[in-house]
User: Fold these one by one.
Assistant:
Number 1:
Amino acid sequence: MALRKIRVDGDEILRKVCKPVDKMTPRLKTLIEDMFDTMYETNGVGLAAPQVGILKRIVVIDVEDGNAYCLINPKIVLEEGEQEGNEGCLSLPGLVGTVKRPNHVVCQALDINMNEIVVEGEGLLARAICHELDHLDGILYKDKALDGIHSVDEDIKK
């Protein structure tokens, strides 16, 4: 296991659409382990494969709800409600912005063993799923920020 370099805003890979995963390989399992390590080391709650330079439809999420999720080829099949809140991103360090997201989502995906799973989330988990899945389509949260983005320091002063 190793830490991966996180790509930052301006890197063209963050704006590309990722390709589906057809089969699990030892290399992809290592990637997923590295993604979890990188996410935990940087105090993130989610990380998408393009953020570490890999154009595959893979995300990892851990919002400290007792579960850590690896979602392969994820797709949101249900969105309900609405929430508005600050988001940050490991690819936009030190910045935050207010984004409107669904408050409840149901996501179909494959797990690391390529078994079908359904992840249902509310609040922060719903937000994290939406945020990370956006990365797979080349979308950054700043594209959806209601009032633009600003430094975390500015947010603390408010």
Number 2:
Amino acid sequence: MQRLLLLFTLATMPLFSHAIEEPDFAVIQQLDAAVELRRYAPYVVAEVVLDVPPEEAGSQAFPILAGYIFGKNKGEKKFAMTAPVTQTAAPLRMDMTAPVTQASVAGGIRVQFVLPKGVTLANAPEPVDPRVQLREVPAGSWAVIRYSGAWSQANDQEQLEKLKASLAAAGVVTQGEPVLARYNAPFTPWFLRRNEIWLALR
């Protein structure tokens, strides 16, 4: 059943990222052609934290989170697919001033689906699957590099180093773990994919 749900979800995802909703943000500064500083408004996510290698987290988390947005919740409410799907390390200790759930502070890899605008913690239906947690991501400022190409550790690491070099040259200081942001379905040709890495500004 999960495999069928995953195939359905992938088939219904738009090919290009501009076709689906993203969280609101404003560009604070453009550092170079690929790197910019952004200020994001708050938004709500459905997330799961899995104790798996990073390269396996997306494929394992996707059907779990897709189940929630396609009606596996109390009320059987369905949501439109949004972007991006984000992935980051979930360290054992985090900034406890942020409104995170108990599941979010367990170690592992955190994968998030952004929920549509207008969805709040107050009106979002409760997940049926206890692995799915809801969280409001507070407003924040991020350094972002945008790139295309394969979803691989080598490509991501190369782009992360480029982002860090650009930020160091501009004297911009960041904190926390890098966030991988994916905007396209896996069947999108590698040269058309929109990928990003986010680093929180200090």
Number 3:
Amino acid sequence: MAEAIDIRELNERIERQSAFVTNLMTGMDQVIVGQKHLVESLLIGLLSDGHILLEGVPGLAKTLAIKTLASLIDAKYSRVQFTPDLLPADVLGTMIYSQKDERFVTNKGPIFANFVLADEINRAPAKVQSALLEAMQERQVTLGKETFPLPSPFLVMATQNPIEQEGTYPLPEAQVDRFMLKVLIDYPKLEEEKKIIRQNISGEKIEVRPILKSEDILEARKVVRQVYLDEKIEQYIADIVFATRYPEQYDLKELKNLIGFGCSPRASINLALAARSYAFIKRRGYVIPEDVRAVAHDVLRHRIGLTYEAEATNVTSDEIVSKILNKVEVP
């Protein structure tokens, strides 16, 4: 009985402390038409302290979404447009010799911001990609002999364009694994498209004012860590991830020849973190199986390696995740 009371008390506390989510969503809705899933994914990344990889054709408000989020939170935003001739120093910064002081001074790059948009990340050569990914993982940058911590919160949202192959460098599997979520963005619905046209031809600029401080996000993260995750849910998450590695143990023999390699333990960790954040966004103090299912595709799709057979028969990792979710027993 004590546990039940604890959960009720936790639920009430989380409902109070997650009130800002509604304000953030409303603020995003004023600027971005539709794209609910994109907005939710950004919030999950922000609350879980994870980075996001977005894939979608140009013009689907990927840049606008992160810019709006940064404006709603009083935080520093920077954008790096990736090109084949970009150098690591263009992202991280460099040491510049000052004649006046007769010494080298640090010139910090655009990575020193709370929200960094890495636009078209697959356009930059491997050297730049790895420099960015090191900063994402270690939350610090070394320039010369000095190491500088990156600000907190620190969220990288990288975009990639799936339709162009010329002049692009696909991200290797090990690097893609560093992103907590890979979100696919689709075209808006017909009604939304009409609203987008109306908004853009009216000529009115919607002014976005900050409603939160960076500290509020750091506080919210502490609360998200208190969201209750039952052992049965833990088991469910572990089963889903294990089914990507050993499908035959879960009566999914047909997937064995389609999966080149399964998900790493990073997938399990991120699935648990994302499910917690999703429960928080839905203003609940505990995780239910539906929360895990809601985030599973975004967390797992870039962590499953497909075989040539899967590619030849046009099987996608999304279809594999769906089959696993349909088969693994829900607690």
